Amino acid sequence: MVSIKASVMVITLLTICLLATNASPVCCRNYMKTKIPFLKIKGYSVQTVTELCPISAIIFHTKKGKACTDPALNWVMYYVDRLRNEAQMIHMKSTLAGI
Question: Would you indicate the residue range of the signal peptide (predicted)?
Answer without folding.
Answer: 1-23
